[in-house]
Amino acid sequence: MKKGAKRKGASKAIRKGGLWKAAFPVGTEWDQLDALYEFNWDFKHLEEALEEGGLLFGKKVFLFGCTEPQLVPFKGANKILHVPAVVAVVSPFPPSDKIGITSVQREVEEIIPMKTMKMDWLPYIPLENRGRQVDRMNFQIFVLGCTRRRAALRHMKEDLVKKYEYCLPYFYQPFKEDELEQSTEVQIMFPSEPPVVCEFDWEFDELEEFVDKLIEEEALPAEQKDEFKEYVKPQVRAAKKANREAKDARRKAIEEMSEDTKQAFQSMKFYKFYPLPSTDTPDVSGVKVTCLLQIV
């Protein structure tokens, strides 16, 4: 078989399955999913990257979808649409088994197992092979899938439904300090009337001066000065302890890793794909780069 013919066959196998649609768009409101699939977005560059000769060919790749609300022109009018994107993670093993949930309303990111949200990495089986017996051990392409049925949403608590709107895969990188380790700030919510809500940075703020400024700004009653200081001190100690424990846990994880695992973490790469321009879809070239992006 000629090389060109082989590549064409591989392309057909991938494209017939609607690869970008197979990757669950995490963090997207459930009521926006139908609108997302109204357009036949062009992700040909993603498909070509996975074909023979492509950037991702022969590598084990994990794909997940996401969306970005954008104001884009379409048929003479500007519309706010959820523009899809697909992130490809090159890794010899699943890059994450956890979901991070964060939003403006949440003070801290919540990290939970993917299975709690009924999500998991699933081998991508092209449409033409789905009725056959296939060897799942030899799959190179995996997509993040969600088995939660939309019909079940009406029986779920609103807080759980909202979690789907604010979630993204959580990627643990043991060779980089996370925000917790680097932060020297502690969130303060002092029980007063009204409550005193502020951020105290133990590296840059001197507690006595910090409290005096709050009193000067009439954010804290003068008679509660000592009480406020005693409230802040254990908060700072707890935050420092959490930082130390996070650093120790990361250091221990690295020490216990095999050399192969260390190399895998260090060589893990992220690529983000936006839809290509198409006559059948809104033009997103003015708001996002439509070519392949590598995030290191």
From TrEMBL:
Coiled-coil regions listed: 236-263
Designated name of the protein: Uncharacterized protein
Lineage start: Eukaryota, Viridiplantae, Streptophyta, Embryophyta, Tracheophyta
Highest taxon, organism lineage: Eukaryota
Keywords: Coiled coil
